[in-house]
Amino acid sequence: MRAANRFSVRGRVVTSHEIIDDAVVEVAGDRIRAVYPFEPERQAGAAPPYRGTLLPGLVDIHNHGGFGHRFDETDPERARAAARYHHRHGTTTLLGSIVTAAPDTMVAQTAALRDVAATGDIAGIHIEGPFLSGKRCGAQDPRYLIDPDPRLIDRLLTAADGCLRMMTLAPERAGFDSAAQRLTASGVVVALGHTDADHETFRRALAPGGTGTLVTHFANCMPPLHHRDPGPMAAALVSAAAGDVFVELIGDGVHVDAGFGALVFAAARHRVVLITDAMQAAGLPDGEYRLGPQPVRVIGGVARVPSGALAGGTATLLHCLRWAVVDCGLGLVDAVRAAATTPAAAIGATDVGELRPGLRADLLVVDSDLELRAVLRRGQWVA
User: Fold this and answer.
1) Interatomic CA distance for residues 110 and 153, integer angstroms
2) CB–CB of 281/298 below 8 Å?
């Protein structure tokens, strides 16, 4: 039997709870074997070079594509190309997200992503729609929005064949409760979003009393927070602060202001999940693109559908992590939790999101400005 590849990476190690200024991460095969402070006498041979700051591989649970490729297609190779773009830029684990479209199209897209998940290029599938609010549809195509349909849910679950990890629904739509229960029973995370629900409806749908355990791109595509009409945002923040749910935050500097981001981190702390909501244009110049059935125009790095609604992001998750640190004033340890540890926990991914023995050997080497130097994924350096 061939021996597992073994090597060490040395640097300033950032975990979800501390920073070790000079430490070693030992890798054996595709797993982390050990993490410990550097001591010259502990090294069997020559000391490994100090490479910079070492972060866990980042985890993006809401991602529609990148570098000209989309997850909402029926060609698995194009979806793999989108995943590889994000792998190269530090997101070593991600879900492939699809948006509202005709039912047959969504089923076909789900089946294609199942094949991509089977090869490990993505960690699973996120379906955003079609059971969403028409009033808060954002970039979702309103022509295809419907109330939860048990038959369509069963078709999607069959097409995913165990790879559906998360689905976003609006809790005010008729049939939400039974749909959410069906998804939960199948091991799918029920996310609440694209909603015009009032405070009480949204609060009831949240865990622990309800089925919703995550809020999709918090503050976007939902009523604004108001002191006499607190709406879903207040319900979500209270539940997140209590440790009952997670809230996604698009950290691209476009979807939410840094001052608002600082507020969310202060209120929900370790329940905030940084996401990109990246779409096809991520990594490419301004121009004409698509998100699901809708055309998208990107100007100045900002993507919009013809209605004027924002149509996803064009940033990487490492960019979002820098935004949290530099613009929101978040400490690096907490930012790493939000971009790696917490999103992994939100979807029940137990072998990623942290630099800890036994977990997958996913790590980033970055410089003092959090600019990327190298990516290790599953124990292999990514070109």
Assistant:
1) 11
2) yes
Instruction: Quote the CA–CA distance of 270 and 274 in Å, as a whole number.
Output: 11
For tokens 């691209």, name the residue: 252
Q: What is the mean pLDDT of residues 330-349?
A: 98
Closest by CA position to 84, among listed 314, 319, 282:
282
Sequence-distant (6+) residues with CB within 8 A of 40 are 47
Residue 2 pLDDT class (50, 70, 90 cuts): very low
Integer angstrom CA distances of residue 351 from 233, 336, 368: 31, 16, 27
Question: Are 113 and 80 in contact, with CB atoms under 8 Å apart?
Answer: no
Helix ranges (H only) for the chain are: 76-88, 103-118, 150-160, 176-185, 199-205, 231-241, 258-268, 317-322, 332-336, 342-346
Q: Alpha-carbon distance 354 to 91, whole Å?
A: 13
Of 237, 14, 13, 15, give the one whose Cα is nearest residue 24: 13
- Which of 94, 31, 122 has its CA nearest to residue 361? 31
Q: Position of tokens 């000391």?
A: 47
Q: Is the pLDDT of residue 272 over 90?
A: yes
Q: Look at the alpha carbons of 289, 294, 296, 302 in this order and tell me if their dihedral is positive or negative.
A: negative
Q: Which residue has the tokens 């991520």?
A: 282
pTM for the whole structure: 0.97
- pLDDT (0 to 100) of residue 383: 86
If pLDDT is split at 50, 70 and 90, which confidence band does 322 have?
Answer: very high
The span from the CA of 124 to the CA of 37, in Å, is 35
Q: Could you please report the per-residue DSSP string of 279-300?
A: -TTTTS-SEEEEETTEEEEEET
Residues 133-171 as b or e (16 or more Cβ within 10 Å = b):
beebbbbbbeebbbebeeebbebbbebbeebbbbbbbbb
Determine the pLDDT at residue 46: 77
DSSP H or E stretch at residue 94: strand 91-99
CA distance 285 to 299: 9
Instruction: Give the C-alpha separation, 129 to 106, whole Å.
Output: 9
Is the model's pLDDT at 3 over the cut of 70? no
**Confidence class for position 1, pLDDT limits 50, 70, 90:** very low
Sign of the torsion angle spanned by Cα atoms 249, 199, 100, 299:
negative
